[in-house]
Amino acid sequence: MLFGSKAPQSRSEIIAAADKARSKGKLTKAISGYRKALELEPKDPVVHGKLAPLLARAKQTEAALQSFQAAAQGHLDKGFADKALAVYSQAADTFPHQVRLWQQLSQLNLSKGHRVDALKALLRGRLHFRRKDERRGAITLLQDALALDPSLFGVKLDLALQLAREKHQAEAMALLNPLLREAKSRRQLRQLRWTLVCVEPSTGAWGRWLRSVLLGR
Hints:
This protein has 13 helices and no strands. The chain has 217 residues and is an all-alpha fold. Helix 9 runs parallel beside helix 12 (186-199).
């Protein structure tokens, strides 16, 4: 070694420097450091987990999604499903309009036997798909939710409405008609009658909705 020359940083030193840069808000330096560390160990889930949200903040969406996926898969490969769940949850919160992330979060919960949490993930994701150009995403998540629990009355109403708005009235009506026998309360009946008005507005539909409001039937 030449006099006065520095020894190259070890991988742990590179990560420590990137961690320090991150804590000081030095986004570019932190990203550069974590990427340098990944050159030495490309599948490190911990480093990918640190890098992904920084890339999201830097508006590098595709790179961020790739790092989130790499982090989750890396934890799964090592048998740490709970850590993978945490990564998917963070990814979905960071990119709430990515349908696949909500599906992956749900599927991983389901694989661990957490059916309720799997369902909650899908329904939480659906809340982020409200615009006209997001209806297909909403429909996908609602259909996945019903696949887990076909008894969800409100989810069926929501799905029927979204289908109708996408010009799939026949599918919407096929979903709604059986609900006339399933409505268990006046409130559910009013909701159903109103959804029918929205899906197929007609004098008869309006009359039946008004009757459900006034007479409860």
